[in-house]
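Q: Is it fine to ask for two folds in a single conversation?
A: Yes, each is treated on its own. Send the first.
Q: Here.
A: Result:
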Amino acid sequence: MQRSNLKRLAAVAIAGFLASTAQADDYAYTEAEVENSFFPYKTYTPEFPGYEPGMVINASNVDQFKDALDPGFYDHLKNGRFEMQTKKTESLELHPNYIKATREAANNPPKLSSDGLVENFVAGRAFPKEPDANDPNAGIKLAWNYQYGYNWGDNAAICPFYWKYKDMKSGKLERTIKWCFHFLNWKHRVNQDPTPEFTDNPAQLFRSIYSKADEPFDLRNTQLLIHRYKNDLKRDDAWLYLGFQRRVRRLATGQNTDSFLGTDIIIEDFEGYNGRVSDYNWKYIGTKNIFLPFHRHNELQLTEEHKEPDGFQYVDFGGTGDCFPKTTWELRKVYQVEATPKDPNHPLSRRVMNVDAQTFTIPAQAQFDRKGDFWKTFLICQAYPDKYHPLSDGSGVSIDDCFSVADVQAQHCTTGQFKGLVTPEMNPPQMFTVQNLRKSGQ
C-alpha cells in the first residue's frame, strides 16, 4: 500500500478515535454533578428581586414577578382568577436507590443514539449533567430524564382519584368521576423487586397505566389500559373498556390527543406528559427560578368532601370557578423546555414545560393551540411524601396530589384530587392486561 494511503487511513482512524472520545466526554459525569442534580438546594437558594417567601402574589403585584412565572399562570394571576400563596423553598429528595443507580452508571453512562433513543441505560437519571445551551440535544436529554424519572416510583396507585368538570364562568360543577389509577414500571426499576426489570416481559414493555371508573353509574367499569414500549419509536398500545357496551376496543392512533371522556384533558397529558419522547421536538429554553406548586399535604387547609375512612382528606379548590387548588407555591430551580409536536394535525402547536430541576416532574405548563394562542394551563401540585399518607412515608416520590387543567378559551376546567399510595400490593402485573379489562368489567 502506498505511503500516502497509509497516512490517510491513519488520519481517519485518529479522527474517529477523537470523535468517539469527545462523544464519551459529552455524556460522562462526575459525583459532584450527581450531587448537584439531586440536591441542588444544598448550595443554592432560588431568589427573585422583591420576593420574600410567604408573600401572596396576585393581580396587584404579578407584573413584578412575570419572569418567575409560567406564562399561563401569569395570565391567570393578571386576570384575577386566583391568588398564589408562596412558601419557603424546600428540598424534596428522591429515593436513595434511584440516586444510587445514577451514581453506578457514571463509569459507563447512557448515551443518545443517532435516532434520539437512549442507549446503555439501566436505571436512575439518564443525563444528570446541567443542560448546556450550546448542546443541540439539551432539550431531548431533559425529556428523557422526565420519561425515566421517579414519578410514582416503580409502581403506585391513585385510589380514589376524583375528577371534576367545572364551568369556569359560573362555578357550576357539571360532573364528578371517581377513578382508581395504577402505574407499573416493567423496566428501569430501582426499589421494589424485581430489579432492575421483570424478566417475564416478552413484549418488552417499559411502563403501563391502568385505570377504572367506579362512579357515576353511566361510566362505572369504564377502563383504560396503556402500554408503552421500551423502544420509543414503537407506538403505544391502548385499550378502552366501556362499561355500558361491555366490550374492549383498541384506541386508534391519534385518539390520545382527543378530549378524554369530555374533559379538558387528553391522554397525552397524563402525569404532565404521557406521550413518547419521539412524538415531539424538544428545545431547552433555559434554567430559571420559577414558582411551582409544592406543598406539605397535612399542613394545608383540606376539604371535608370525600373524607376517607382512614382520615385522609383531599386538597381543596377555589379561585374562579373553583378551578385552582389551594396549594402553596415555591420558587424553585426549573429547566424550561418548549415541546413542539411533530404531527401537523396535533391540536397543540407547542407546550411550555417547567421541569422541576430536582424531581424532574412537570408541575406547571402552558399549552398553545394550532394558531399559537394561549389555550390551557396544566398544573400538578407536588406533595412531600413524608407529610402525606403512611403508605407513602419513605417512598422518595414527589407525590402528585392534585391537578387543574384550565381552558381559558372555553372558560372551562377539569380538576383532580388524589389519594396516592406507593405500594406494590395494589399493582400486580396481571392487572395490566387486556384479559383483566374483560374480567374486571363483568
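Q: Second one now.
A: Result:
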Amino acid sequence: MINTSVAHAENSAQNNYCQGTPTLPTGTVLTRCLQIRPEQRYFLYLPRKKRFEDCRVFVSVHGISRNAKIHARFFAQFAEQYGVVLVAPLFDKALHPRYQRFGFDGVRADIMLQYICSEVAQFTGADVSQLYMFGYSGGGQFVHRYAMAYPEQVAALAVGAAGWYTFPDPSRAFPYGIQPHHKLQDLHFDLERFLQIPATVFVGDRDIERDDALRKSQHLDIEQGDTRLSRGQRWIAAMQSAAEARGIKTRYQFESLPESDHSFSRCVRRGNLCGKVFQHLFGE
C-alpha cells in the first residue's frame, strides 16, 4: 500500500515556483517552471535533510497520459526514504508531441530534461552527473533511449511497460536501432558504454492487450513480439546478448508485476512498482 501522506501535504498555491530564485521547501511535491523556458514544467521533491550536495537524483518520466504529478506523488515517499531528489518532467503535448523519441518535431525533450537537471543542481547542489532513471510506457521509451544517447549521464535504468524499444543494432536508424537519424544528427550512440548501464524492465503480467496506444507493424511484431510483456522480455534478451558478445558483464533483468495490466497506478498498488524500482536503482 502506497503512503500518500507526503503527497497530500502539497499545496499548489504555495508550491508553484515559476518566477525568481526559489527558496525550496522539503517534504512536499513542488510544481516548477524552468526559468529559461517557463513553458516547460516539472515536479520536484526534496527529502527532509539539511544538505543536498551528496544527494543522488531520480528522474521519473510519464507516459502519454502525461501524469507527471502522479509519478511525483507515488514516488515521493521512496525519495524521502532513500534520501534522493526526485524530478518528474512534464512533456506536454503542445511542446513535445513525440517526446518518446526526443522530438522529431516540437521541442527536444532530451535537451529540456538536461536544462531541468541543471536548474535543480543550481538550486539544490544535488549531483546530476549520474541520473537514476525510470519511465513508464511512453516514458519507458524515452528513458531507455536517453540512456543509449547519453550513457555518461545515466547510472542505472528502470523501464516500465514500454510499448516498443530501440535495439542495440548499429545497422538500423534510430529509433529502431542506434544508427544516427538525419533529423537528430547530433545524437551518436556509444554501444560499449551504454551496454554497461544496469537495466530492469517491469511489465504487468496482464499487460497483453494490443490497445490503441501500442505501436503495431508486421516487422515490429516479428522482431519484438506482439505485446508489451513479450517486447520487454526480448529487449532485455537483446541487451544481454549484445553485452555478452563484447565481454561486458551488466545486470539486465525482466520482472513481471502480479495482477497488473497497462495502468501505472495499478502497477504501483498491486505490483509494488515504486518499491521495486527504488530497490533496483538504489538498493544495493
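Q: Anything structural to flag on that second result?
A: Two points. The radius of gyration is 18 Å. The chain has one domain: 21-282.
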